[in-house]
Design goal:
The chain has 14 helices and no strands. The chain is flat and about 70 Å long.
Length: about 300
């Protein structure tokens, strides 16, 4: 009887602890979801604010701002400013430049990053450790703006599109990310390919790249966003209106807004151009999101 009573008591205690754990997990889940929703709204609202402002009438927009209204709908809906920008040939030329710099720059960066990561993922070579340290050091020991500008100028790349494509084509962080992914590929596959007489180029193109599509896609997204949003060095290096990307025009329009006779009209026009500039990235991201989720889990078992 005592043994049966003790077993019953232990079962009741275990059930009680299990219920408490379920309650705690439920509360934690609710709090976590609420915090994530709040954080998402905080991050999404600025973009949403720019969108509703870009399709607002400047007069209504000014009245709403002066009244300290929390904007959740357009103030006097109009597509006038977006339409005006789309009819501006300078915008389309800048759009073409941005696409060129993004596609070509991303391709160059991926080529350099993939080949470098493959070399650093080789096993059994002492020099690889030294090369890895050298690559990692570039993350902290940066030359600075003046040294970078002087280097570009001395190389004769000022006013040339390669002045923004080549000097900023390499990211140590992305190389380490790819190197970690490559290193996670089973060594047996590598050895089997070598026994079959496969060259390093064949192994890279037939084994490593196909097996690392999530990581490569993630790194490519990082490079593409960086290229698409770049404006500082583009304005500093290119020095020609016909070579400027779209983001430089956005920057100049935002700067000229303060000098405009109608401040709110200039702001609405600038917001309309910002929306035009970010639409491609917003459309592309959902299609590569599945690869992005896998890519950030670098080193996991495949």
């Amino acid at each position: 009887m005592k043994k049966h009573s003790s077993t019953t008591t232990n079962q009741a205690t275990a059930i009680s602890r299990f219920k408490k754990k379920l309650t705690a997990d439920y509360i934690l889940g609710v709090v976590n979801n609420v915090l994530l929703v709040i954080l998402s709204l905080v991050m999404i609202y600025p973009i949403f604010y720019i969108f509703i402002s870009s399709v607002s009438n400047p007069i209504n927009f000014r009245e709403a701002i002066n009244a300290n209204k929390f904007l959740i709908i357009p103030q006097g809906f109009t597509m006038e400013y977006i339409s005006d920008h789309l009819q501006n040939m300078d915008i389309w030329r800048a759009y073409g430049n941005t696409l060129l710099y993004t596609l070509l720059g991303t391709a160059i960066s991926l080529f350099l990053s993939i080949t470098c990561a493959y070399v650093l993922s080789r096993r059994g070579l002492r020099v690889i450790k030294v090369l890895t340290i050298v690559v990692v050091l570039t993350m902290w020991l940066k030359p600075g703006m003046i040294a970078t500008y002087t280097n570009i100028e001395n190389l004769g790349l000022m006013g040339n599109i390669f002045g923004i494509l080549i000097p900023f084509a390499f990211s140590a962080y992305n190389v380490i990310l790819l190197r970690t992914y490559f290193a996670a590929i089973p060594v047996d596959i590598d050895e089997s390919a070598q026994i079959d007489g496969a060259s390093h180029f064949r192994m890279l193109t037939s084994i490593y790249i196909p097996a690392s599509v999530p990581a490569i896609t993630t790194v490519g997204l990082f490079y593409a966003i960086d290229r698409w949003n770049g404006y500082f060095w583009a304005e500093l290096v290119l020095q020609k209106d016909k070579l400027y990307p779209l983001q430089v025009l956005v920057k100049k329009l935002l700067q000229n807004t303060g000098d405009s006779g109608n401040l709110f009209e200039g702001t609405v026009s600038a917001y309309a151009l910002i929306i035009i500039a970010i639409v491609p990235i917003m459309l592309i991201f959902p299609f590569i999101q599945k690869y992005f989720k896998k890519g950030v889990m670098v080193g996991s078992v495949k």
